[in-house]
Design goal:
Largest sheet: 5 strands, antiparallel
Strand order of the largest sheet: 4-3-2-1-5
Oligomer: single chain
Distance between the termini: 32 Å
Number of strands: 5
Helix content: 10-25%
Structural class: alpha+beta
Length: 67
Amino acid sequence: MTSPEYVADTANGDRIGVVQQRYEGSVYLCPPGGGTEWATAPEALRHLSPEELVRVRVFETPVGRWR
C-alpha cells in the first residue's frame, strides 16, 4: 500500500486534500479523514508545508476508545 499524497488546492482557498485519482486533466481530492470528493486542475495544486502536514496527520490518526 502506498502512502497518501496530500496537497493544497489553491483554486479553493488552499483547501487541503488527499489525491484520490488523476483523470483526463483533473485531479480528484478528498478531505483528510473523509468527506465529499472534489475535482480541481493539476496546476492549482501545491505541496504542503511541514506545518500543514503535521496538522493533516492529526486528522488521519485513529483515536482509541476510552475505558
